[in-house]
Amino acid sequence: MSEARPLPPFAAIVVAAGKGLRAGQPLPKQFARWRGKPVVRHSVESLLGAGASPLVVVVPENAEDAVEEALAGLSGYEAVTGGDTRQQSVAKGLEAVGSADRVLIHDAARPDLPRAVIERVLNALTDHPGAIPALPVADSLAQDSDGVMTGSAPREQLRRVQTPQAFRFADIFAAHRTWTGAPDAGDDAQVLRAAGGTVALVPGDERLAKLTYAEDFVSDQPAIRTGMGFDVHKLAAGEELWLGGVRIEHDKGLAGHSDADVALHSIVDALLGAIGDGDIGTHFPPSDPQWKGASSDRFLAHAAKLVSEAGYSVGNVDLTIICEEPKIGPHRPAMRQRIAELLGVDIDRISVKATTTERLGFTGRGEGIAAQAIATVIRN
Question: pLDDT for 331-345, tens place per residue?
Answer without folding.
Answer: 999 999 999 999 999
